[in-house]
Amino acid sequence: MTTNCTRALIAALATVVATTAMVSAHMAYSKSLPEKDATISESPSEVQIWFTQDPEPAISQLSLEGSSGEIALGDTEVGAEKSIVASVPTTLGPGSYTVKWRSAGDDGHVQRGEFGFTIRTAD
Ligand SMILES: [Cu+2]
To answer: How close is the Cα of 120 to the center of ligand 1, in Å?
Structure first.
């Protein structure tokens, strides 16, 4: 193999690697309120998650589970700064909760995740 040919091959491989890296850059969780694994003292009025890309409204869905099952949230809406948000219409009592989310970013790949938070017993 000539040096030129080797260089061309390396350049081609580098392009493939770079393209693959771009394609695999799925949307990801960035931060949330309540924060992941937070212990808070008051029932939140809404749940909001920020992502690394603009969330696709048609795919985005938030849900909330407590110790006795699913808790109804308001409609999931796209919020400011690459976020989705849903209101919490009921007052949550002390206990552990799990937020589950589904969304998609620029490449349309559906991403799912979940995180917990705890509401502590009032002093
Ligand atoms: Cu993707």
So the answer is: 37
